[in-house]
Amino acid sequence: MTDPIDLDSVLDERHRSLLASLPADLLDLSDLARCRTGFDAFNAAAPKPPMPSDVRIAEVFVPGHDGDPDVRVKIYTPEGLGTRAPAMLWIHGGGMVLLSADDNDFPCAVRAREHEAVVVSVDYRLAPEHPAPAQIRDCFAALCWLASGAVDVDPRRIVIAGASAGGGLAAGTALFSRDHGGPRAVAQLLVYPMLDHRNETASSHAIRDLRVWNRDANLIAWDHYLGGDQPTVYTSPALCDDLAGLPPAYITVGTFDMFLDEDVAYAVELNRAGVPCELHVFPGAFHLSQNLLPDHPTSRRWRNAEEAFLSRALAGRP
After folding, report:
1. Distance in angstroms (rounded) separating the CA atoms of residues 142 and 120
2. What is the pLDDT of residue 1?
3. Distance CA 200, CA 305 (A)
4. Dist. CA 79–CA 216, nearest whole Å
5. Catalytic residue at 115?
6. Which domain, by its residues, includes 70?
7. What does pTM read for this prediction?
């Protein structure tokens, strides 16, 4: 076990200033209803750049997996996009218990335009109202729909991607699709993914600050997500001892993220299984800081490296 890290004493001045601007209990999940209300209010009050005017946003409901309820997805399509375009299936974060696809409108629209691709964002069911495996099944249903020809995209150039809980769901969906005869994505983009329900690593003990994704929040979120059931390799991908045959992956995380150790370990195991995995660990970054402080040099390097991988993957050469 590792002593907690005092983020105020280890961050650089700009990251420390950003942290000081966040509500002291932003990610206190001990009262989930209150946390949801506070987090939604924080998001609503945050400055928002103008949405790209040349990207169309549509909303559809796609058939659920094997009799499940239909799944709401949002589709971002740049104007003038040609046929058989590449596509990204995006899965939002929030610890399986917070947020929705609507919270990622801007980054999804920007990526659709910058990469000349269709982006489909999954509004999966949240826990605890819908415990696992509802989330994996919703994401798999969206992946199958996207690859089926319902949208004019190239099924050979679909990237499955997500951040935090969404990164864990992306990894789990790739495993589920491999094992159930589903579509094979060209690549996985896993941004500080939430992969391991055990919370036994040193980094999982180190981050306790309620202003960022922290150990207590993670323990509560996993309890809500699993709903008392045993985890599987799809809900907790770190448990999987056979990662062969998965799409090439890209994993990125900061040194002051509680998911650091589990993300590094997953990257190592992917490579050992013969799955090419590019790993980037950014010094001095904490969970979500690259989005909250986009003009910091570290955030720029993070974004440039991530977008370069995504460009290669969408071109079919991850």
Report:
1. 8
2. 62
3. 29
4. 44
5. no
6. 7-44+52-314
7. 0.98
